[in-house]
Amino acid sequence: MKTDKWVDLQVNGYAGVDFNASGLTIEAVRAVVERLDADGTGIFLPTLVTGDPDMLIGVIRTVLAARRRYVECERAIPGFFLEGPFISPEPGAVGTHPVEWVHPPDLKLFDRFQDAAEGLVKMVNVAAEIPGMPSFIEELAGRGVVVTLGHQMAVSPEDVEPALAAGARAFTHLGNGIPNLVNRHNNIIYTGLTQERASVMFIPDGHHLPDAMLKLYCRAVPIERLIAVSDSQYPAGMPPGEYKVCGADARLEANGLLWNPSRNCLVGATTPIARMMKLLQERVGLTADECRAVGRENPLRLIGG
Fold it and tell me: What is the CATH number of domain 6-302?
């Protein structure tokens, strides 16, 4: 699994194609692969958020069919990222995920997704504080699945320690998918930045994290632990306007900001990884080699590429 382009572990959709809605076609999957490739992303994980399991399984099967039919899809899509439903239902932590589909840890439900994916669910995001989560993480990690922590109410090192000890290996878009108001000292951002056993996935699109926070991440965390992700949603590459994302209203502003006015939260991003790498160079001062690490080498290493 090699590429001279960027690697994106979190793509919910792109250029009008949604990986979290019914009606996905093989040709639409191919179109996303081609458009992402043109925009600099050579490998990516279609990302499934919290939703109707039957619908999401249909998406998985369509993506697999595209991989079988088109070699470019097989090369570009090594597997899937299951971002939900094993997350916190609390406001702020749940983000724009539909609360009605949030589910406690459940191996039978995970197996439904993994069986449909023919073993290609590469990553699963969970909330560390949910009862029963450490044993769930241990089981998934034992099967070679990368478990990440996010969309959670866990805040302290003590909150996440059982999950890390069980085998969790990264934090999902650290600094996002959390309540807007947090304790100034005891919060998941500081906790995530200081956990040496886990990688830090983050969204450097100029909207999800302010420049000062990006500089903090890149100075506080060794470069080998940083992974840039786009968290792109299907309105990426589309005109500004009103959209439905995860069944909720979303507004795409002219500057690329995609947000939910009623929940006052972001609903993913619209900036491709290639542009994010330029932002990291221009605003943070990362070198070309450091960008290759956070945008290509580190994500590949996390998923075993």
Answer: 3.20.20.140
